[in-house]
Amino acid sequence: MPSLKDLKNRIGSVKSTRKITKAMQMVAAAKLRRAQEAAEAARPYADKMADVVNGLAASVAGSEGAPRLLAGTGSENTHLLVVMTSERGLCGGFNSSIVKIARYRAETLLKEGKSVKILTVGKKGREQLKRDLSAHMVGHVDMSDVKRVGYENAAEISKKVFEMFDAGEFDVATIFYNRFESVISQIPTPRQIIPAVVPEDAATDALYDYEPSEEAILEDLLPRSVTTQIFTALLENGASEQGARMSAMDNATRNAGDMIDRLTIQYNRSRQAAITKELIEIISGAEAL
Amino acid sequence: MADMMQFDLVSPERKLASVQVRAVQIPAADGDMTAMADHAATITTLRPGILISEGPDGETRYVVTGGFAEISPQGTSVLAERAYPANAEGRAALEVILAEMRAKAATLSGPEKDSLDKTANDLARAIESIA
């Protein structure tokens, strides 16, 4: 049985924790709004880019001169997994859920006899994957200095990916990130970026004139499209992280409140017991006289 | 109004314009072109330059650093690598980009350097033309 002083200290400490989690929740809410706005602002570009690239790719796919980013290397032996997580913790299951699907994919591919390379973005994913897949890790992109995700951050990641692709270090690249659904729901999503995946119904009805040429435009657009997909993933991840942190901190605040209530009841009961005990002692002492 | 068309100018980070216009002058890779309503469907890449939209309220000028444009009879969408309004603020941002481009070109050699030099020269010309 803890003493009254211990209980009082404990209540004080839980109260300070609640203050911190409450503050973190409010900060996350403000950041979430900004992150959501950024994700929405980037959507028109990404949608239009996807439309044009899909339309072009559908007409060029299968032809002999198709770019490698679309047609692939002709093999599927080496996979690059780009695992995008956050730099900070205290955001519930946000990082673990991404790492979980990435690890599952890596293990499945390894079982199939394929080789796996992992590029991590964000410290948390790296820390978790390093434990059992350290032999497959080929690089890391540090985002700890980045206050606000910009297109140049996505360009930095895609540059690394293209360098590896040009050097023949992998055949298929997939990014792993959390798609933002709502504050309480973020969906871990794998998305293949190289070779480009063309939806079957992508062929457009409109007949375009291409300047300079279909192939030249596609050659120029495909790398941009990959960078845009990475950028979109970074923004979705940013919004998801804040959403996850907000609900995690909301839970923590509520749990701290419950704990304070429980501890206060325990404290009051102990105090009451101590008072009763003292009274009994006084009364029995008086009766004995 | 039958002679108006939809014009969208978007960069990866934001939408700069989504308005009805009469015509848009685009700095296409092979030379400037003007798109109006009912233009033949075309997709073209852009070079750094000035993009001018002619709306009911007059001309609006932007500087784009590259990207591509999709022109259809109903409208024109420009997906710019980076786009800024052609004003003092835009000019300051573009000068930083130009300096970065020149610095990067200095570290390259061969056709890559030539191509980046050409892009930088196009951008320098566009910056000069901002009044």
Provide an overview of this structure.
The complex is a heterodimer of chains A (289) and B (131). Chain A has 289 residues and is α/β, with parallel strands linked by helices. Helix content of chain A is 63%, strand content 15%. Chain A has a five-stranded mixed beta sheet with strand order 3-2-1-4-5, sandwiched between helices. In chain A, strand 4 (172-182) and strand 5 form a beta hairpin. In chain A, helix 1 packs antiparallel against helix 6. The longest helix of chain A is centred in the last third of the chain and has 75 residues, at 214-288. By secondary structure, chain B is α+β, with helices and mostly antiparallel strands. Chain B has two domains: 5-85, F0F1 ATP synthase delta/epsilon subunit, N-terminal (ATP Synthase, domain 1), CATH 2.60.15; 88-128. In chain B, 30% of the residues lie in helices and 45% in strands. Chain B is built from two helices and ten strands. The chains are: A alpha/beta (289), B alpha+beta (131). At the A-B interface, helix 1, strand 6 and helix 6 of A face strand 5 and strand 8 of B.
Task: List strands and helices in order, with pairings.
The complex is a heterodimer of chains A (289) and B (131).
Chain A: H1 4-60, H2 68-71, E1 78-84, H3 94-111, E2 115-121, H4 123-133, E3 137-141, H5 151-166, E4 172-182, E5 185-194, E6 209-211, H6 214-288
Parallel strand pairs in A: 1-2, 1-4, 2-3
Antiparallel strand pairs in A: 4-5
Helix pairs in contact in A: 1-6, 3-4, 5-6
Chain B: E1 5-10, E2 15-21, E3 23-28, E4 31-36, E5 42-46, E6 49-55, E7 58-64, E8 67-72, E9 75-80, E10 83-85, H1 88-107, H2 110-128
Parallel strand pairs in B: 1-9
Antiparallel strand pairs in B: 1-2, 3-4, 3-6, 5-8, 6-7, 7-10, 8-9
Helix pairs in contact in B: 1-2
